[in-house]
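Researcher: Quick one. two chains, 289 residues in total.
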Amino acid sequence: MTPGPARSYFEDVELHDAVETPAITLTAAHVGIYHGLTRELDADPAAVPDLLPLCVAVGLGWRTPRAPLAVLALLGLDWQPLRPLRAGDTVRSRSRIVARRPLRDGGVIVEEREVLDQRGEVVQRGRFTYLVGKRPKEVAA
Amino acid sequence: MADPRRYFDDIALGEEYESPGRTVTEADIVIFAGLSGDYNVLHTDAEFMKQSIFGERIAHGLLGLAIQAGLLTRATQAYATLAFVGLRWKFKGPIRIGDTIRLRAKVVAKKEAAKPDRGLVTLQRAVLNQRDEVVQEGETDLLVERRA
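Model:
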């Protein structure tokens, strides 16, 4: 089997490891696609739906130099939108891992994540709980 | 024309809503991957996922969360919402391609806010699949306008 791209496994996860993503401009196209997908409509087509920055932040989390986490499942999420966003705002995300608990086949990690706008203000923040796989035997460290 | 939105004063503690169903398709997952940029193999690599505990691609947890937010708008008249301020959520099981999900929600708390023109409404929500299994559940806090 051809080895896949590098992934980080539960054993590789270190606490208090802050990572910042590249930024993305949220456009009217993002808002329109989100409305069509969810039917969570808004009379104001330039208002960014509250859950859209959260969804984009997770995608941005894959665009950092480090190998992506071998996430087996998303278990939980506590989230607080703090400020509304408009189409044209540019967001990036910052995260760090604040807890890790081993299980037989990997472990649970808790990640704090913030979404920042183009002025550097935190516009949303919260905590994700993930189940992360352990390193398979055939994959050398 | 009368304002059709429901204000803090109109919402009763214990009110319950149930939405219509919505079948989650492969297209939904592909569009959500493109929109969010989350191309995790869980959602995008059918061959890899054949070997996984799920046996197939599954929907992004956040796609399920976003769809249930839209389903609420089909379950009840819109609230006069000022802001969505908090979410406490658990992902209990996978949403598979072809699953039909619906939302069941209940008003479990109403609190006056510091400002007299608004109040905090807490909804307990459960996302159920076609087998009535709870695949996601949690609570959301909304700031809702009071009648002047």
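Chain B has a mean pLDDT of 96.
Researcher: Thanks, that's what I needed.
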